[in-house]
User: What shape does this take?
Amino acid sequence: MILEKPLLPYFEWLLQFDKTRWGALPHFLLTLLVIAIATLLLSLLVGTVLYGPLKAGDKVYRVVVNGFRELFSLSFRRVWALARLAIQESLRGRVLIAVAVFVLLLLFAGWFLKTEREPARLYFSFVLTATSFLGLFVALLLAVFSLPNDFKSKTIYTVLTKPVRAGEVVIGRILGFSLVGTVLLAIMGVCSYLFVVRALDHTHTVVGSVLAKGGDAEGNLPETTSLDKGHRHTIQQDDDGHLFAEFAHDHDHHVGESNGRLVVSSPHETIRARVPRGGTLRFKDRQGVQVARGVSVGKEWGYRSFIEGGTQAAAIWTFDGIDEKTLHDEDDGGEALRLELVVRVFRTWKADINTPVQGVIQLKRPGSDLKTAPEFFSAKDATIDQRYFPRTLTDTNNQPIDLLDDLVDEQGQIEVVVQCLDRSQYFGFAQGDCYVRMKEGSPLWNFTKAYISMWVQMVLVIAIAVTGSTVLSGPIAMMFTVSFILLGFYREFFVRVARGIQEGGGPVESLVRLVTQMNLTAGFRGESETTSLWIMRSVDSVFLGAMELLANVLPDFGEFNATKYVAYGFDIPANQIAQQLTMGAAYVIGLSIVGYFLLRTREVAK
Amino acid sequence: MAATPEIPNSDKNGERRAREPDEAQVVVETRALSKVYRDFWGRQKVRALKSLDLEIHKGEIFGLLGPNGSGKTTTIKLLLGLLFPSEGEAIVLGQNATEVSKNERIGYLPEESYLYRFLNAEETLDFYGRLFNIPADVRRERIDRLIKLVKLDAARRRQLREYSKGMTRRIGLAQALINEPDLILLDEPTSGLDPIGTREMKDWILELRDQGKTIVMCSHLLADVQDVCDRIAILHQGELKELGRVDELLKVEDVTQVKARGLSADCQDEIRQVIERHQGELVSMENPTTTLEELFLSIVRDSEARPGRRIVKQEPTKQGKS
Ligand SMILES: Nc1ncnc2c1ncn2[C@@H]1O[C@H](COP(=O)(O)OP(=O)(O)OP(=O)(O)O)[C@@H](O)[C@H]1O
Ligand SMILES: [Mg+2]
Assistant: This one.
């Protein structure tokens, strides 16, 4: 799975600082600064109204100076004491019930999870979604009611009359609940993995004897295995005479013998972690001239661009870092470069829709004319086509060439050229549509990475909940956190509304449309600037401004969902995990600072 | 209120004057301290404290007295920084009351013991000890000593949710002493305690004072205050009504109370005549009665000394330190 928006390299993502894009770190610092200044001005304003400018200035000054002083007098021992308290609170609060519920869920899951195809996908989606939600839910409940309960039972009085800095209360809580959540996720993760592995493991029985193995006197082979787990395999014999159960249902089996009977092994590679390496894409137009983009065929969303068939037009990917390690050992003993290609086909004349469009794919040495002999393929729209290029190939003049020695240049780059052969038909490509399959990653580690993503998300929810609950009562803090999470999940939509891209206008306008049952795209009557229209738009623009600001601090919760990767058997890029961990840390730091000031300025015994 | 200055363990009373409060060292100072409780919209609800000026010196036991709702707890919370003053300021141990670092040297026993009910006595003290950054070995030793001091040794591993009110008060006190504070703020220390507990609490307070600590306590139980406090302030509806040394405040100049033992009826008549002769007015002259507290104490003390024996009546004159 190649991301539509390719991941930036970690340090570029973090530090980039120019006109086109602000990296995560500058963005974070700017956000902190803006929040700080806005809060400062607001509190000065409110203070001036309440106490007059001098006293307000004095108070604000004290809070700020105190804040800096207390920031540097954080004591880890106290933080740890408070974290332990949070842990004890959770354990005595029977958090383990959540684990029990989860285990029960898994025990019974086998009953209702039935599928005809790709069981791994289903099982992984199920366990990952279940843990994600259960984990979030438990973390939320623990974190959001803890501080409000302390205020309600006034236990906070005995804590805050010790030399405890408000920041330590916030950080201690976040740390404690995160640890509880970590253990919870770990337990659920281990259970889930075992569950999936066990659920996928199966064998079949084959009726037949060893005699049959080499083809008995009559040459009869058993035809198929038994029907188990909703599928059966046909039995085949490879060149060496070994029997195997043919690939079906996302896996195959060996067939061996034991005590004179045929025995089917456990399935192979039911859980995978494919590693795709993406390249950069450029195009040539019909005259064979380099262009930035191909042709737009006026559909899709501008994401793919198209090359015309029967012309010089080509899509060219450049892949980096191709060496020995990139090649796979094949069953026949050789090595091969594995490519996968997804083609979108756009037809300008209606042929039989089922007749594939012909294309050609070649490997090329960058900066030279050396190319492999064209390899033809028939493209079906939007299916993944796997191409294997063995180490020894022939060039366009039928001379033998070596893939690594001849086609890969000094920088370790290789080019893949794809053209469409049928006239007036088009192939559409985006950068992510062709990739090199690298060596498989470890499925277990991949699964762990999915849990790390989930973990970051959980810590984020805990941090939001704890920060919110420094000033809000339990239920309100809960609502606050839940809306934060929901907005986070629908961040994209939210940002589109805020930037005015989404049809239907801002909050007030869409409310008006909702009440009057007006179409989203319809203009208002007369479209002339009536006063009411003007008021509506002005109020909306204030709302939209606020939303835009909020969008800047809203985490994108959708990003933490790695279910797709694991379910479809793709490796989660380590870079993505690193970015998420960094982002999580940034949120925890930012929220702790906010939480500190909220708690510090709160009149505790009120 | 019978104004008996004698308390049962009178030898304690002898020590009582051993250390005089250090007038020069001001531990707590409030200047025009006021508190107005407001609701969410900033509307005034209650004026709980009106322009309080106080100075509390090192080594004294200072009592805040007053009926319910007179602002005692409010004052203590202001001193702790749990509330922010509406006007004026409170200086505690030389720092503004809202500073956190002053808490290093403060112990606080809240009105009700606000402790985590899911912890047991040891865990509770350990937790608060950690908040003071006390190293592990010191912490362990102190926890042990404090648990023994407040007589919770038998219940040290039980969760606080199972504790009775008196036990909760005891662990509350232990919690307040975990950092060996210089200033101890006690909000109604004797509430919920049985007479023995009350007695013990008062003894602890005196002992702490003798160790040179400053104690501010509030209570509306006059007897308690009178027993232990050096100076008191009486609050009523948030206003300071009276401030001074207890012995001076309690001295009623124009009343003489006669109390004697073994007088015959003749002798009593004679005394009556003497008072009449001097134009005095006899307020009362009768056989003294003991207070309920004293009676209860002596019964329990006796039953502890001779377990099993049931005491029906105890001659008040026989009481003393056994
Ligand atoms: N959080 C609060 N919000 C509003 N009013 C309050 C609050 N706390 C106390 N008050 C009011 O302030 C006044 C003083 O209360 P305070 O608790 O200081 O009294 P107290 O002297 O400690 O009484 P008690 O002997 O009953 O403990 C009371 O009128 C009370 O109703
Ligand atoms: Mg009170």
About this structure: Residues B 72-73, 111, 187 surround magnesium ion (ligand 2) (CB under 6 Å). The first strand of chain A starts at residue 205 and ends at 209.
